[in-house]
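Newbie here. four chains, one complex. Structure please?
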Amino acid sequence: MTENLTLQMDDYLPLRDVVFNTLREAILKGELKPGERLMEMHLANKLGVSRTPIREAIRMLEQEGLAVTIPRKGAQVAKMTEKDLQDVLEVRDALDALAVVCACNRMSDAQFVELKEAMKGFEDATKTDDVRRIVEADEAFHDVIYAAAANPKLENIINSAREQMYRYRYEYVKNPSVYQQLIAEHKSIIEGFDRRDVEFLKDIMHTHLSNQINAVREVIREQK
Amino acid sequence: MTENLTLQMDDYLPLRDVVFNTLREAILKGELKPGERLMEMHLANKLGVSRTPIREAIRMLEQEGLAVTIPRKGAQVAKMTEKDLQDVLEVRDALDALAVVCACNRMSDAQFVELKEAMKGFEDATKTDDVRRIVEADEAFHDVIYAAAANPKLENIINSAREQMYRYRYEYVKNPSVYQQLIAEHKSIIEGFDRRDVEFLKDIMHTHLSNQINAVREVIREQK
DNA sequence: TCTTTGCATTTTGTATTCAATCTGCTTTTA
DNA sequence: TAAAAGCAGATTGAATACAAAATGCAAAGA
C-alpha cells in the first residue's frame, strides 16, 4: 500500500516531475506493487497536491511502461507476465551487446578508471547487507559502460528496459550466494575492456544477463 | 451476445488520446516542424478542447521523444541533430538485427505470405507518385517482420525509434531513383526468410538501413 | 435462486479559474 | 549611450469545479 509516500521538493522542478519521480521510485522499489491501482484523489491527498500534476505524472509513467491505464477506469502499476520479462530480456541482450561494442571502441582512460572504481564499489557493497546499496552499486557499474557508449538515445532506451525489470530483480540480488558470481563477471568485463576484446565482452554480458532470468522468473511466478 | 459493442469507439477514446494521435501524426508528417512551439492555448483553440487534454498529450509526446519541454517556457517539437540521428540508427540497426533473427525463427507460413503481399504492395505503391502511400507501404512491409518477431516489447521500442526518424525520412523516399534499390532489397529480405538464412538477413537489413542515413543526414543539415 | 434495475457513491474526464513566471518593450538612470 | 528597472501582456503551473462514467449494493421481479 501507499503508506509513506512523500515529496521531496527540488525547488523549481514542476510538481508533475516531482510526482513522476516519486511514483517511479515507489514502483521500482516495490512500494507500489504491480496491479495496484493509482487513484488520482488518493495520490493527490497522500502527496499534498491537486489531481492535475498527478494526472500528468501518470501519463508519463504510462509511456515509460510502468503504468497502464484503462480509459474511465483508471491507472494501475504495470504487471509483467513471464513472457513480457522474456521479451524485455531479449531486447536488453541485444542493446547491451551494442552498448558494450560502442563502449569498447569509445571508452576513455578516465572512464576505464571509473569502471574499475565502480567495480570496487560493488565489491564493497556486497560486504554489507544493504540490498538497496548493492543494487545501486551494480547499476552504477553498468551506468559507466552505458555512458562510455556515448550514445544517449541508446542509454535512454536501455534505461527504460532496465526499469521495467528492476522491480522484479530485487529478489535476485537479495540472495547473497550470487554475489561472488556477480563480482567475477564484473571482473571479466573489466578484463574484456582492458583487452578490447569485443566478442568476449558480448559473451560475458549475455551470461551476466541470462543469470538473472531464472531468478526473476521465480518472482513473477509467485506474483500470481 | 450483443453485436455492435464497439459502436464508434472513437467517442470512447479520451480526448487526451485523440489529441496525442493528432499531434503525433502532425509531427511525423512534418506539419508541425522541429523546433516549432507547442502552445497550449493555441492548440486548445485549434482543436476545440481545453488545455487539460493538450497538456496530457504533450506529456506523452515528451516521453515518446517527439517533444521537448522547458519548465515554465513550454514545449516544442523535438529537434534532432546529426548525432541524434546517428545514435538512433545505431540502435535501430541492433534492434532490426534482433527482429530479423526472431522473425526468422518464429515466422508462420501465413505471415510469410503476408510479407510477400506487403512486398507486392510496396512495388505497386512505387509506381504511383503518392509519397505518403509509398512510405506507408514500406512501413507495412517492415511491420510484418516486426509482428513475426513475436516480441511486443521489441516492437514498441523499434516503433519509437522509427518514429523519431520518420519525419526526416520523407525526403529520402521522395527521390524515385531509390525505388528500384528498395524493391531489390525487399526481395532479398524475402529470399532470406525463404532460406531461413539469419546471417544474410542481418546483413541485408543493415544495408537497407544504412542507405537511408546519408539522405536523412542531408535533410538534417538543411534544417539549420 | 438468479437476474435485473435503480440509485448513491466513487472515480475519471474535461473545463475553468487563479497564481506564478516569462517576454519584450518602455522608461529610468548612471 | 548603455545598462537597469519596471510594467503589461502572454504563457505555463496548479487547483478547483463540474460533468460523465463506472462501481457496488440493495431492492424488485422472474
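Moderator note: Confidence is low (pLDDT under 50) at residues 1-9 of chain B. The two ends of chain B are 59 Å apart (CA to CA). Thread marked as resolved.
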